[in-house]
Amino acid sequence: MSRELANPIGDLFDAAVRHRTIKASCQCGNVGIFDPHALWFLFERKGWSDKLPAVRKRMRCLQCYYAKRKRSLAMLELTSEDHTRQLPMPDIIEWKRQLRRRR
Ligand SMILES: [Zn+2]
Asked: What pTM does this model have?
């Protein structure tokens, strides 16, 4: 059994530690790939849970929003593809502080 299966990624922080990008796909076909550090930092600043099921509920498709379509739950996948959406990155001091806190 691989380490990944034995110890599945449960939140954005895990995803960032393991360098997996977060791919969110909407039913309308809109796909965004996010850097896990940047996405974690966004959730951290907002005080939101970074558990993946909670993240999934927070994700909102802007194309559907502008088209006033009914909101649907995005699909979340962990990938090794490069991110396509630019969000602010956490500063390195804050990131290191969190790493120490969680280890
Ligand atoms: Zn959509």
From this structure: 0.84
